[in-house]
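Convert to structure. Protein one:
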Amino acid sequence: MTIDRRTLIGSSALALLAGALPARVVGRPTVPRTAPNLFVGTGGDGHTYPGPTLPFGMVQLGPDTDVERWATCSGYHHGDGSIMGFSHTHLSGTGIGDMLDVLVVPTTGPVQLLPGPLDNPDAGYRQRYANEAAEPGSYRVHLESGVAAELTTTERTGWHRYTFPRGAGHVLIDLSHLVHDTSDSAPLIDDATLAIDADGTITGGRRVFRWAKGRRIHFALHCSRRPDRVTFYADGDTEQPAGTQRIAGKRLKMVLHWTDAGAAPIVLRCGISGVDVAGARANLAAEARDWDFDRVLRTARQRWAEALGVVQVTGGSADQRTIMASALYHAQLAPTLFSDVDGRYVGLDGQIHTVPRGGAAYSSWSLWDTYRALHPLLTLIAPERTKSLIDDLIRQTQQSPFGPLVWPLQGKETGTMIGWHGVVPLAEAQAKGIPADYAAAWPAIARRSFDVTAPDKDNSLGRDLYDRLGYVPADAVFESVSRTQEYAYDDWASSHLARTAGAGAAADRLLKRSGNWRNVIDRETGFARPRFTDGSWWTPYDPIQLGHMPKPWWRDYTEANGWQATFLNQHDIYGRIAHVGGDAAFAAKLDAFFSAPSTLPRNAPPDISGMLGQYAHGNEPDQHAAYLYAYAGQPWKTQAMVRRLCAEMYRNAPDGIIGNDDCGQMSAWFVFSALGFYPVDPVEAAYVFGAPLFDHATVRVGAGRTLTIEAPGNRADTPYVTAVTWNGKPWTRSWIDHRTLSAGGTLRFTMSATPNRDFGAARADRPPSFGHSA
């Protein structure tokens, strides 16, 4: 779907751009019935970007508008009004910024080496723009310099086609460009090179200390028309003598000059590698064999047509169908490819490894977020991709000094968030029949689980106390309440992997320890509550607050407060219900959760957003909470709440994602919920029914297998499921298992404006949890 930004005024150059792009006939493949809107999530705090990539591609090319604000973690924010240039790597929907490698700036006029501030584009190389359009695999925009820019990609190469106005023009390559933050300390780049070979190939690389400390990126770039002159700029933007062919330093730039840039379109093709320049050259040689930009564009569109065609829906509103397509698009951006065409990649041990033939290595594993819905979605709609991802998770778990993956980015384990949730997609995939050597990961998982001398990052602090006391004390380690619960969930997942590896005693120990969540749920108040080393609770207790310490950075919960952490537990839900007094008490607590005042303390992070009562849809810890009513025998409340969340938390607009998209997690939640079911506990390999949003959906669930979901006559005012059939036979349960669903068939919902309080209420019909039914 293409979207035109507001028409920019006050610039005669922009007024002339309406016809700047030459007419080209580019064949388009058959596309899904509704196309995605790539600008959904680019405003507000969605932190997505509209540039082109392939599904899970290494190159994620696109425009950058700013690098100074949290709003521009992805480098782009809708409404900024000026573009700095086009960089080759981006993070989609994260809450921390990095990447933005190899910025390319096509322009005319005097050379400017600094972008200038957002509020004064004329002070630097920023450019106002108009007629911006984006669709899967393609991005186009008109710049105020008169340049018409078009972008597309292969997996490992970015392609640019620039149509300049008549006369001189130049392209700046800025290797100093990156996301800034007030917490940063110099140097953010400590080693960089730029060079041009005799054949005109431009190469370079840099080592960056932004978020993933010390990651390296390398590139090799070809121009369809050799520049008439090349100028290098070393540290301090010092111009180098004519004839310079290579420079080294920290913040490097170069400018490619053409005396008549507008004589014909200039195509740039740029390969990248996390390994070395040789890898970037090889990637470029393998994936850029000609200069046919339109061929690459057609291929990119076809790849996306196939990826987006796995889910087709009818019914609902036009906006809802666009939101669905957009969510499906965002759910197939990460993890990102990280191995070169020869299979080489940088492991988490800092060494260069090679994947087996046919394999791949990946980066951008936002596992604290994505284990919940993104990976289960891929397991359902893309089992072959999941097989590739799981094989890589196993390899990288073996290679990392920290064992199970947390949040690795381009060969560096950032340790961001808490727990070691890399075990969850492994246990989930194993439970759902994805073949892999799971036992190979077990030694590293065992070290993380039991060896208190194993190295820690922030994510795994307090493991010794957790094991010895049964919880992480709030007076010893920050975010203690959330840690206790999330460590317990990782124990639950790890117990399955231990059993698979033949480590029965370890599996039993982990299974028992996975009940540690009880030790931070106060029976008296029913809340997840900070507890101290001596066993006492924080008092007086206020579930609105984030922690007992007055220091703003010390929190007892991870991006949550007491209300949200109270419903964090995803396994042993029937144990949880019994712990607080049974079905009625648990359902009443849920009712209060969704109806309480949406008050937050002053030190609440911006991640806690999308409030409905104290429920925060814009962040992950409680995103399964609406589905918990089904475990208490009240699935009709789940149905109504899920329908409400689908309607209120997602819009077909730039600010249409209520919080960070988090590498597709927010989008995957919508895809599942709009289809009518959700994986509350991915390791359980079951889906809890909610309320489908559309009349009809088809989902490809593997080679030759199709899941059809029907809800005839479904409307906005029919959120309740009164009956379900599977392949024409009555289905009384409020859930369905993965094995049944993934075999393909027809799931039919009867929808109503009034609830059927008997459907799914019987204990025998409630979802399984902790390996057993209610």
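Protein two, convert as well:
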Amino acid sequence: MAVTITAVALALVGLALFGFGSQLIMLGGSFYYALAGLAFVITAILLFKRNKAALHFYALFVIATLGWALWEVGLDWWQLGPRGGLIIVIGIWLLMPWIRKPLGFVSPTGIRYRANAVPLLVAVVISMGVAAVSMTQDPHDQEGNLPTEVVNNAPSYGNAVPDGEWHQYGRTSYGQRYSPLTQITTANVGDLKEVWRYQTGDVKLPDDVGETTYQVTPLKVGKTLFLCTPHNWAIAIDAATGKEKWKYDPNVGLNPNRQHQTCRGVTYYADPAAQAGSQCAARVYLPTSDARLIALDAESGKVCTSFADQGVLHLEVGMKYNPAGYYYSTSPPAIAGNKIIVGGAVNDNYSTQEQSGVIRAFDVNSGELLWNWDSGNPTQTQPLPPGQTYTTNSPNSWSVFSVDEALGLVYIPLGNQVPDQLGMGRSENVEKYSSSIVALDVNTGQDRWVRQTVHHDLWDMDVPAQPVLLDITKPDGQSVPALVGPTKQGDIYVLDRRTGEPILPVTEEPAPGGAIPEDFSAPTQPTSALTFKPEPLQEKNMWGVSLLDQLACRIKFHQLNYEGRYTPPSLNGSIIYPGNFGTFNWGSVAVDPERQVMFGMPTYLAFTSQLVPRDQIPPRGQDEKGSEQGLNRNDGAPYGVLMGPFLSPIGIPCQAPPWGYVAGADLRTGKVAYKHKNGTVYDMTPLPLPFKVGVPGIGGPMITKGGVAFLGAAVDDYLRAYDLTSGKQLWEARLPAGGQATPMTYALDDGKQYVVMVAGGHGSVGTKPGDYVIAYTLP
């Protein structure tokens, strides 16, 4: 009976492999799967006949599969496993006595000739031996070390911030995410222990949108930490104990049209002209998801009614269209002198009648509008007169700005015009400023320079990250004010921040064509000399937990349009790689301004993008909620777009891992020193398996002068510490929820250094939600 059941199962698997494998051949793909299907069917027939040749034939099939797998992927365990796992399990099953013994025949003289299992046993043992060897290899690992030489003993950090404090999102206006504290080092970081834990009480609600996320980096000023929560509560807690000092709830409510429900941080400001201790002498500015900016007294949390309209700045003013939930601020504003400079997030791909992406500067004390820079109308920077409106759907900036007050410039990472995937009808200004880094004059709002990172963006390749500022020392000893700009497509631009001209070369490379007839694609795209762009996908990169779902991904790979990076969206459907999740996202990179090196987390996850004609878009569902994944309607445009990760039928990525790394690069030379797989599948699978695959992540790193880099971000729930020089992991702490935020560090008056991490999860990547703020220090 066992032989018959096994034969039936092999026949069914074989027929499926042969049928779909034949389809793959028709698409121009590998012959292996159809041949493997035949092998299963032949083995099944031999088993039905109780023919001992079944084991010999299957042994040949095992060895042939091993040779094919090694030819395709070498000693890469995570790719070898899916190719051979099912086959080896079946081989072991065929060696079992209840299968092996019934095979063979009885001679006329009554002698039973049993099947010889040795060839199959040898084939299985060889395959398992190769698998064991492959587990000791890491073909994707790049070993190396960053230079340890201190190039600049007295670097500029931007504005003056005491060493033990963290006053702005990236610690200072330069956004370096670098602390000069040295108590925690590579030698003792392994001793870090949790010392306090605070829960905000703001948790994800049943009616929240999917991408309800906790991405905040707290600020530390004096003895207090200031932070916000996903529903935009502002909170002050004691830096030594984690005890709450005050809490302010702006009552933003829930709106199913918001694509994001998050807060990355608040902005701190101390008025130099105010009397010390007076009300609102120090303020916390809170951005909200209902398009307000609220000024709060830093000591009490009470609203500063002298600012704007009784303490509230209404950011929807000047918008021609104002659909609720389509526009809000997810990132902390920047402050330069007496100005608070604010951008805003506009829902991607909802409508052609959305709010403007205008950047505005207000008087930090009164809330008076001082200038506005609208990328759709960039020359009119004087405050918009009554009755006029900003340009609808102009490219927006939803991330964090950096400021160089000495140069009088604020650096804006700009996004794309909505709809992201449709470029027809864009204005000359949009074509110039979309998906670029722009330097604006702090005093007038006029643009001084623009560096575009994608031409005619059809892929949602916003510049997502805060530009990082530092001074770079050239080989001749000359110091150049520099800007480091990470991008979704993997390029990291190193520019002279005075002019926008490249310090590391930027070249134009040919790009794929094939846009829809109404549109076009740029013939070339820029690439920086410092790049983490992925190698183009090939059929052999398709992945799965078994031959069957791997085969399904291979078929899909050939059915979709794909010609490498910048393959245009299409009616057929296109693979977008890197996907709009980005190689780098809002977490940016951290730089050491003394050694002039960077640490980052490149992520590699392919997406698909399919244009949907207007007449094929169904009516909006009553309970439909905002999301960047799935069907984006683009109301008013001829096409919607269906987007999401490139996944197998069982919901895992179609491309093989690794999907995430930690990496270090020398900013003076553009050389990538190391890339190491980062993160495990511990929280991605039904069983908590600590396999270090290299997983996706979203969040940012932080560096200390002690030579340690800290990073959460990965989709397993850990905060980790790394040796900045080598990238080797030194320490990890289990988090109670997803750590999709950027850590920070500070010291108290006694010199004790703390590291703080927010753990609250991320809706888009599916990590566990929570409301935790956790501090670690040395015993």
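The chain has a mean pLDDT of 94. Helices lie at 2-26, 32-48, 53-73, 77-94, 97-100, 118-135, 428-433, 547-559.
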